[in-house]
Amino acid sequence: MVLSSITSGLSRGIESATSGLSEALFEPVIRLGVTGLSRAGKTVFITGLVANLLDRGRMPQLSAHSAGRIDSVWLQPQPDMTLPRFDYEGHLAALTGDSPRWPDSTRAVSELRLSFRLRPDGWIAGLTGPRILHLDIVDYPGEWLMDLALLDQTYADWSDALLSRMARRPEAAAFLATARAEDGALPLVEARAQDLAALFTRYLGDARQSGWADCTPGRFLLPGDLAGSPVLTFAPLPRPASTARGSLWVEMERRFDAYKAKVVRPFFHDHFARIDRQIVLADVLGAIHQGPQALEDLRRIMADVMAAFRPGRNGWLTALLGGRRVERILLAATKADHLHHSQHPALTAIMQAMLREAKDRAEFAGALTGAMSLSGFRATVEETITRDGRPLDCVRGRLRDGREVAMYPGRLPDDPARLLSPARQGAESWLDAEYGLMTFEPPLRMSRRPGEGPPHIRLDRALEFLIGDRL
């Protein structure tokens, strides 16, 4: 077993070094990770980004485009033969068809490669020809991403923390009643373990539907070929006074540890740890709409996710040996099209303040970080209406029933502490304001001139931050 592990490690090291040498000397590759929790808009973001890179008429803030350095961009087969291709064409058709709709959410890791043909500039422009740069976009399911925080937790710690949070949620009532009636010191009965896991999985689905962010372990909701296996047949339990080998508690602990070792850790090493640049998407507006507890829930989970990154700068030797670090991290509040542009700075400030500690830690390690509000596919237009004699800056969009309505969601505070402080203190609701939110559908009629991608908000600025230095 030890010899096999050493051989496997050497093999991966040689493979990484060979790949790094090829990239460094010939056609460099940037691996961009797109991550975020469920409903953050990862699929829409990637689809809008790719469409606007292929047709760059709406990308004025991408300096390589405005300076004429991008000769062409084209799609290529993804390099990893074991990963499914991101279904860009299918998702774009869903957004722009005769009956436009939002595409299905991410359900597995997927990848897409865009290749740039770049013209040289400066004094070497006449000495060298065009160069090729590959951008590998890797999409991670939000449900799997949250599992990275489990790597540093024991089963006992995870159970205590999760049961404490669940006690304040009506969605957990049925599971908690059953779990509290169990005696973890008794011998394992497999049928009881399966019943507990099924009730726990039902709770996770209900919690996600209600807008809670911490729906882990993620594979319980997206099991794939692991459905029914012991590695997905565990649940949090109150710790008994004593435990013995073969008891329910010990078996649940063993399965929790197996989940980390066989599911979470391989995902981290095979995919997550190979990223050069990272964008972290969050539906901050949705959490604010749900209330203080949902916002604090989102802040805590996103901080755990940020802690899983390996931020820092990549020298040529680091890249050559496969020890990649995340050089640039962009924190993005999505669905900015649900707000008038006058409120975007406040939304960005809230996103930045939520992850201030993680942002400072990444910058200390040498990574460049940024924050902004954006929309991968704009579903609204702005308008100002008069209500009670005063103007209100609104957005107008199409609802699922076909009606077009104008929405004023409320005024976000300029000081993020006005929201984050009561959220951290466990407030039940916002004291001095209410924040409304509607779910808009993609527009039926989209204005696109030749050479233009779909309308968006700040995709060009996001890409400039993430890879502009390499273009």
UniProtKB/TrEMBL annotation:
The lineage of its organism: Bacteria, Pseudomonadati, Pseudomonadota, Alphaproteobacteria, Rhodobacterales. This is YcjX family protein. It comes from Paragemmobacter kunshanensis. InterPro entries: YcjX-like. It comes from the Bacteria. It holds the Pfam family DUF463.
